[in-house]
Amino acid sequence: MDPLLFLVYINDLLKAVKHKALPNLFADDTHILITSPNNIHMQSDLNIVFEQLNNWFKSNLLLLIFTKLTLFNLTIKVNTLLINKLNMKINKYS
């Protein structure tokens, strides 16, 4: 796909993510920043955002490839007990 055509095609992805997320597009990379006060809220927000992304991909006849996703969980607290595994769930995938 032509780079300009790709940008026009993917430009509305920014409008698809509306829930406590800051999407950032650069060339063919997409980064989404989500901040939450704790892991419980983070998991909920993450699932909502990925559901919105999945809906955008479906409506544009694209696939969200889970093997290419990377999740970084950053915290300012240095306590290993606070770092829990976050579970993303979209449809039947997790």
Structural features, described:
- This protein has 94 residues and is of the alpha+beta class.
- The chain has one domain.
- 35% of the residues lie in helices and 13% in strands.
- The protein has a two-stranded antiparallel sheet with strand order 1-2.
- Strand 1 (21-26) and strand 2 form a beta hairpin.
- The longest helix is centred in the middle third of the chain and has 21 residues, at 39-59.
- The protein is globular, with a radius of gyration of 15 Å.
- The protein starts with a helix and ends in a 35-residue tail after the last helix.
- The model has no long low-confidence stretch (mean pLDDT 76).
**Which blocks of ≥5 consecutive residues have pLDDT under 50?**
none
User: What order do the strands of the largest sheet run in, or round the barrel if closed?
Assistant: 1-2
Span between termini? 30 Å
Q: What is the string of helix and strand elements?
A: HHEEH
> Which outline best applies?
globular
Strand content: 5-15%
